[in-house]
């Protein structure tokens, strides 16, 4: 199935995954092995502007969901 385009949706979503990793890195300092929550609270406050970046990502991602849904549900492979 990989030869006929079944992996295309996964490759499309890599863009958003990288943006999410950027948000994690901005908040915790690490991209994948983040350790932010501690006993009694969190390691540090969120950096200035992080919430705005997160809301911008949410707006961007919500507009792309229709594209991904169309790519998966209207694709004859699936």
Short description:
It contains 2 helices and 2 strands. It has 78 residues and is mainly alpha-helical.
How would you explain this protein's 3D organization?
Helix content is 58%, strand content 5%. By secondary structure, the protein is mainly alpha-helical. It is elongated. The protein starts with 7 loop residues before the first helix and ends in a 5-residue tail after the last helix.
Number of strands: 2
Principal-axis shape equals elongated
Helix content: 55-70%
Assembly form of the protein: single chain
Beta strand %: 5-15%
Please render the helix and strand layout as text:
Elements: H1 8-28, E1 37-38, E2 41-42, H2 50-73
Antiparallel strand pairs: 1-2
Helix pairs in contact: 1-2
Feature tags:
single chain, 78 residues, mainly alpha, two-stranded antiparallel ribbon, 2 strands, 5% strand
């Amino acid at each position: 199935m990989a030869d006929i385009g079944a992996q295309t949706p996964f490759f499309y979503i890599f863009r958003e995954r990288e943006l999410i990793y950027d948000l994690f890195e901005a908040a915790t300092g690490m991209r994948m092995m983040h350790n932010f929550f501690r006993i009694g609270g969190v390691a540090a406050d969120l950096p200035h502007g992080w919430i705005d970046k997160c809301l911008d990502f949410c707006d961007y991602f919500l507009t792309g969901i229709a594209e991904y849904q169309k790519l998966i549900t209207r694709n004859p492979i699936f």
